[in-house]
Amino acid sequence: MVRTQIYLTESQRDELAAIAEAEGKKQSQLIREAIDQLIGQAGSSRRESVLREAAGIWKNRTDLPDFKKMRQEWDRN
Question: I want to staple 8 with a disulfide (CB 3.0 to 4.6 A). Which of 12, 47, 49, 71 is the partner?
């Protein structure tokens, strides 16, 4: 692990301490869990964004073969 220093407001520190005590965990563990959750959410959002941007990019291409016709030929065999 890498040691990192962060600044919290007094309110954040107090709430974090209360949660840590209630859950029987260290504050650092709660911070790591929160960061992991944020990274997971951000990763999902980035993937969805990329997929949305890519949707339909070949829609108006005229230089591609007729895929429906090709598929029909494959299905006959």
Answer: 12
Q: Show the tokens assigned to 74.
A: 């494959």
Taking residues 5-23, what's their average pLDDT? 97
Mean pLDDT, the chain, whole residue set: 89
- What is the Cβ-side half-sphere exposure of residue 19, based on CA atoms within 13 angstroms? 13
Q: What are phi and psi of 22, to 5 degrees?
A: -65, -35
What would the mean pLDDT of 42-62 be, rounded to a whole number?
Answer: 83
Name which of 10, 16, 11 is nearest 32 in CA terms. Answer: 16
Identity of the residue numbered 47: R
Give the predicted TM-score (pTM) of the model.
0.58
CA-to-CA distance for 53 and 32, rounded, in angstroms?
31
